[in-house]
Amino acid sequence: MDSGGTRVLITNDDGIAAPGLRWLAKAAHANGYDVVVAAPQREASGMSAALSAVTEDGRVVFSRQTLSGAEAITAYGVAASPSYITVLAKLGVFGPAPDVVLSGINRGANAGRAILHSGTVGAALTAANNDIRALAVSLDVLSPTAASSGSGGAAIAALDTADDEARNWSTAADLACLLLPWLMAAPEATVLNLNVPDLPGAEVAGLRQATFAPFGQVQMAVAETGQDFVRTAIQEEGSRQVPGTDLAWLADGYATVTAIRPPTPVPDLVVPTDVLQRAR
To answer: Please, are residues 193 and 257 in contact by the beta-carbon 8 Å criterion?
Structure first.
């Protein structure tokens, strides 16, 4: 499909200043797409599909921004969650409504069933609720050496201390643009979830369609409890080695793509008639 005239909204949950957002916007623009960027003014990770915003006198506040190295791209920092921004874009707040939403590039894999909590994925699913195609893009910043060391703490430390500007954002951005023509030819409301190793493009083993790992790359744990308080921490989750799952492929150096959809009814699960009748 010719990219000319295709309107692309780039958003994320890491905030307007995040390098992954900038790389994704530059790649889409370089491939001929009509790009507008609208992202949270501050980090909004873990927001899922929340529709939240900061308002002044009932107005959602946003401001023009300049993306370093991408000054030609119109960009806005918005005092709202990624999903709220997606809805605003659909309503024409940032110019013509988008034909497709690219959400990311997230700092950290969005894999396994834990994508339920992701603001990156939430924006993509919100796009689908509005009959817009979408692609959530994430970079697996837990390095293979740290992840395979057997120390969840070491892996998390690697995520927290590495130089984000030096990561391989271009690898994820290029793979996203590779998927875009297929996505634009797919049915309305199609959503893809792309996870890419933090490696140079030539070192990525390939792209695989994957199932979900049982949970996600990290999980919450209780670090300390006391009277009237709890302190939590994150630790590496042990689901990487389930064959065929997104986290297992990532551990082997592959990028993964998974088709997902917004919540839908489950028609095969029938509530018994006698239970329904009790509600009368």
So the answer is: yes
